[in-house]
Amino acid sequence: MNRTASTLPLVLIAVLFASCQKQNIETKSATPVPQPSSLAGPPGFPMPVLNKPYPGTGVVGTINRKEGWIEINHEEIKDLMPAMQMEFNVKDKTLLDKVKTGDRVDFTIVETEKGEYLTEIKKTSQ
C-alpha cells in the first residue's frame, strides 16, 4: 500500500471530527433589533394588521433609555400575542421618561413592516 493511500483515512477522520465540533458563535445583541413582520402571528393568534394600534397592559422590567427600548412583562395582547416578557423598541425615547422599573403600565404597540414599536405608555394606578 502506498503512503498516500494509508494517510487518506486519517485525513478523512480528522476532517469529519473537525466538522462535527460545536461552533461557539455569540449572536445575542444587547439591543433588540426590530424584526420584519412575520407572515403569520403566534400559534392561536391571527396575522397582525400592519399599522394597527394594539393596546396592552403589563409591568415594566427594564428600561434602556440610551438605546430606546423597554422590557415589559405583559398580559395577552388581544389579536397580537400571548402573555410574555418582551422587549419593545419605542418610536419616541421620551416615552421612557414617563415610567420606571416595576410600574404597572398601559401601552400601545404598532406592528410595522420593520417590526413592532411601542408608541404610547402610561403608568396605571393599580
Strand content: 25-35%
- Spatial strand order of the main sheet: 1-2-3-5-4
Tally of alpha and pi helices = 1
CATH architecture of the domain at 53-123, please?
A: Beta Barrel
Helix content: 10-25%
CATH topology of the domain at 53-123: OB fold (Dihydrolipoamide Acetyltransferase, E2P)
Counting copies of identical and different chains, the oligomeric state is single chain
Uncertain segments are 24-28
Shape: elongated
> What is the string of helix and strand elements?
HEEEEE
Can you say what the CATH homologous superfamily of the domain at 53-123 is? Answer: Copper binding periplasmic protein CusF
Major beta-sheet overview:
5 strands, mixed, barrel
The helix-and-strand class reads mainly beta
Q: Please, what is the average pLDDT?
A: 81
Instruction: Quickly name the level 1 CATH class of the domain at 53-123.
Output: Mainly Beta
The number of strands is 5
Overview of this protein structure:
A 5-stranded mixed barrel has the order 1-2-3-5-4. The longest helix is centred in the N-terminal third of the chain and has 17 residues, at 3-19. The protein is elongated and about 80 Å long. It has 1 helix and 5 strands. It has one helix at 3-19, and strands at residues 53-64, 69-74, 84-90, 104-112, 115-123. It is mainly β and 126 residues long. The protein has a domain at 53-123: OB fold (Dihydrolipoamide Acetyltransferase, E2P) (Beta Barrel), CATH 2.40.50.
